[in-house]
Amino acid sequence: MAxxxxxxxxxxxxxxxxxxxxxxxxxxxxxxxxxxxxxAKIYGISEEDxxxxxxxxxxxxxxxxxxxxxxxxxVTAALLDHAKEGDLVYHGHAGHLLLGGISHLIRIRVIANxxxxxxxxxERMNLGRDEAILYIEKxxxxxxxxxxxxxxxxxxxxALYDAVLNLERMDIExxxxxxxxxxxxxxxxxxxxxxxxxxxxxxxxxVWASLAKDDRTKTAYVKVxxxxxxxxxxxxxxxxxxxxxxxxxxxxxxxxxDVVSEVGIGSDWYW
Length: 271
Description:
The protein is α/β, with parallel strands linked by helices.
């Protein structure tokens, strides 16, 4: 079992690499857009709101951080539903952060120089050179702000990845060979411990997403941690009614056998 995440700066060639890699490995290939569409269907939240939660820089989100985190957990739960069946190639700029803590995760960063990216943007979006530069710079800036705000890390930090591949210097087939070689290393193979961490992340994300979906609990500002079939929920709720509903909603999630609620009364965040 191997989950490969490809963090792709806009017009860096990551999408093409992901699709070719999945073809060669015979793995499912999933994009950020695919996951957002799935999460929207499952949890009844608009694709626009989910896309904003994982793509827009902080401004409004700083005032309602609980809402953004809940949306991210909806996306994470949808992504994990695909990954639980086994091997997967996911391409998007934050898959490795959404799935943090899973050791059988191969984290790839794809880069290319600015001229390579500008030419690609001009061709695919029918932009002039100056327009392409402005577009790429804005997307890069927004992603840096997003990862710094939510995770406290620099998006381009090579320490966040297991390999950084420059597609200006390496063609798609060579990049595929590199990653395929990594899938054979013991370092990235599933172990009982990594499988347990994966299952716990699946369960906690599903509970978190269910709390975000339910009208009774969607305003609660909570954190969910799973340990086997037990979930521990901490945070704040704005009323006793919300407080009482939290364990009820959590127990309805498949796989949950026990709920420990450490939620107290405090300020809600608002939709």
